[in-house]
Amino acid sequence: MKIALVAPYDFSHPGGVANHVTALERQLTAMGHRVVVIAPASRPVTTFEDRFVHIGTPRPMPASGSVARITISVRLANKIKAVLAKEQFDVIHLHEPFMIMLCSAILRYSKTVNVGTFHAADARPGYSFGGPITKFILNRRARKLHGHIAVSPAAQDYHSKYVKAEYTIIPNGIDLGHFNTSVEPIPQYCDGKVNILFVGRLEKRKGLNYLIDAFKKVHKDHPNTRLLIVGPGTRLRPKYEKMVRNAHLENDVVFTDGVSYTDLPRYYKTADICCAPATGQESFGIILLEAMALGKPVVASNIAGYAGVLTHEKEGLLVKPRHAHDLANAISRLVEDEPLRHKLGRQGLETVQNYAWDKVARRVAEYYRLVLARCGKPQPADADTAPVEPLTV
Predict the structure, then answer these.
(1) Model pLDDT, residue 64
(2) Among the four 58, 160, 283, 323, which has the fewest Cβ within 10 Å?
(3) Are residues 366 and 334 in the same domain?
(4) Domain total of the chain
(5) Does any domain span residue 389?
(6) Rounded Cα gap, residues 192 and 189, in angstroms
(7) Whether residues 257 and 146 fall in one domain
(8) Could you count the other beta carbons within 10 Å of the beta carbon of residue 356?
(9) In terms of residue numbers, what domain contains 102?
(10) 308-348 pLDDT per residue, tens
(11) Preceding peptide of 101 cis, ω within 30°
C-alpha cells in the first residue's frame, strides 16, 4: 500500500503524536508498504530521508493547559494538491484529523480513502476553533473520513461527542527494543535510596505540584527517598522549585529538564517507583507503558486514560486525582513493601508485551484493508500480510 501518515504538530519537537507516527512509519515500512510522513516542521527533519514532506510552519498555540505547535497558514492548498497528485496514496491516515490547518486541509483535498486516529481527550483537536464556522467545516470534513481509530476508550468517549461514527480502538504502541530491562541505570542515583520518578512536561495538568506535596510526607516518614523529575518546561518550573525549597528538600528532589530519548529508559531503570499524577485530559498512558517495560511499579491518578492501561493492584496502584494525601499513602506503601514493588513490576512486564509496536502496527494495517474493502477499493498485496495476533488491552 501507499500510505500517507499526516501529523498536525511540529515534527521537530518530541511529542506523543510525533512519536506515534514515527514508530508506525517504521513498522509499516518494515512490512513492505510505501509510507510518507506529512507534517509541519520548524527545523529540518532527516529521520525519514525522502519519505518526509514538510508542509507548513508551526506556531505555538495555547491549548488545554498545554501548547500545540501547529501551522495556521491558509496557504497550504497548492503544495497539498501537488503531493496528493504525485503520490496517489491508497490510504491517507490523519492523526487528529480535524486539527487545523494541515489535517483539515488534506482531508478537504483528498480523493482517496481517509482514516483518522483520535489521540486526545481534551479540547486540542480543533473542535473549539471558530465556533459555528468550525461546526460547519467539521460536518463537511467528517463526511470524508472513512475510518475512525481511537487510541483508548477515553479518546473514543471524548471524540464521539463531536464526531458520531463507529470507532475501532487500537492503542498506542511501545518500542520494547528501546525500553527494555537490559539498559544501564544512572550511576549517581544508585546509592541505596528509593528513587521515585516523574516523567512529563512541567505543565499544570501533569499534576507535579500534587506529587511534590505528597513527597513531603513520604520523605518525612521515609528519609531514604529521592524524587527525580524528568521533563521539559520553564513556565511553572520556578514555582515547583520554590515548593521544594520551602520544604527544605533541595538535596532530595532532582530536576533534570528534558532528557534524550536515548537516555530516557535509563531513568526508568534507575527508578524504584514511577508516578503519574496527572489531573485529567489524558487519553492514554504511554509513560505507564514505558515504566512497565522496565519492570517498574506505577502509582497513577485514577483517570480514564490511565485506568485503561493500568489495573489497580496488578501493574500498580491507582489513586484519587488531585489528592496529595492518597498519592503519598500509595507511594509510602510501595516504599515499605519491596516484594510488592517487584510483584507489580513483573506483572507490568507481562502486560506491556501486548502493546509492542509490531502488534499494534499489524492491527493498523489490517484496519486499512478493512476500510478499503468497505469502500470498494482493490486490496493491495505488496506487503507482509501474515495473520495478526489478537491484542488484549
Answers:
(1) 62
(2) 160
(3) no
(4) 2
(5) no
(6) 8
(7) no
(8) 20
(9) 2-173+356-374
(10) 999 999 999 999 999 999 999 999 999 999 999 999 999 99
(11) yes
